[in-house]
Amino acid sequence: MVDSDGLHSAIAAQIEAFTTAGGTGVRSVLVKTLDGPRLTVAHRADLVLPAASLTKMILGVALFDSAERGELDPDERVRIGALPGTMYPSVLQALDPDSTVTVRELCGFALVTSDNPAAEHVRAVLGQERIDATIKAVGLHSTTFPAGFSERELGPLGRANTTTAEDMLRLVEYIDRTPHLEPVRRYLVNYLRNDRIPSRLDDDVPVRHKTGSLRGIVNDAGIVLHPAHRVAMVFLTEGQADNVRTAQEIGEVSERIVRIIAEGSAL
């Protein structure tokens, strides 16, 4: 096995190359191995940046934590036609307006497809007090979540939702270890937008993650469920000149880091 200092240096070199490649804007990165050689490698992981749709993971945690305490019923049914509309594509458009789904299923839509109307309804069911209590309970000390996912909040107002790579690591680890959050784990491992962390990994390597995007913002946070070791990764950015290129670079550096850890662990 390669010594931990060697692995740390190799991963740090990859992160440095990624954080300096963009030219403009800022990039925050945090990588932590959850199995095998225990390593944490970070670049500006305490930097507060817009969270974008990463906050939808907080909704999932708040919903099932609240249900576990008996504070709400996640199986309450909602009529599709009663949900807010959106100018963006929505999975809910495939359903009859008179059909009903549960709040639990809307949470699933929000985390599997990043559907905004579904997320906005879950947010309304929870209320700001429960959301803020979840942020405090999980220890997300630098995270704010005052805005939702309505049309008017997807522009400048959406940037009011902020976080750090350190907080997002705490969140994905909390989801990973908490038994009653199994539905959230299932939703995240089936997330359909795989253009970042998973994009260059082998198809048989599951990734439990959630992306977040606004103009100039390309985020991703989750856990690579490699059969030999699990690796938590968080990427937060702001001021990116080309969102598509930044997403590609996240995929490239993620693949290199996972390969370095796998090869180092095997030696």
From TrEMBL:
Q: Which organism is it from?
A: Kitasatospora xanthocidica
> One MF term from GO for this chain?
beta-lactamase activity
Gene3D superfamilies recorded? DD-peptidase/beta-lactamase superfamily (3.40.710.10)
Q: Can the keyword Transport be found in this entry's annotation?
A: no
Q: Which InterPro entries match?
A: Beta-lactam/transpept-like, Beta-lactam_cat, Beta-lactam_class-A
Q: Does the keyword Glycosyltransferase apply?
A: no
For biological process, the GO terms are: beta-lactam antibiotic catabolic process; response to antibiotic
Domain named Beta-lactamase class A catalytic: which ranges? 28-235
Which branch of life, at top level?
Bacteria
One Pfam family name is Beta-lactamase2
User: Organism classification, top ranks?
Assistant: Bacteria, Bacillati, Actinomycetota, Actinomycetes, Kitasatosporales
Which named protein is this? Answer: Serine hydrolase
Entry keyword set: Hydrolase
Where in the sequence is the signal peptide annotated? none
PANTHER family, sorted: BETA-LACTAMASE, BETA-LACTAMASE-TYPE TRANSPEPTIDASE FOLD CONTAINING PROTEIN
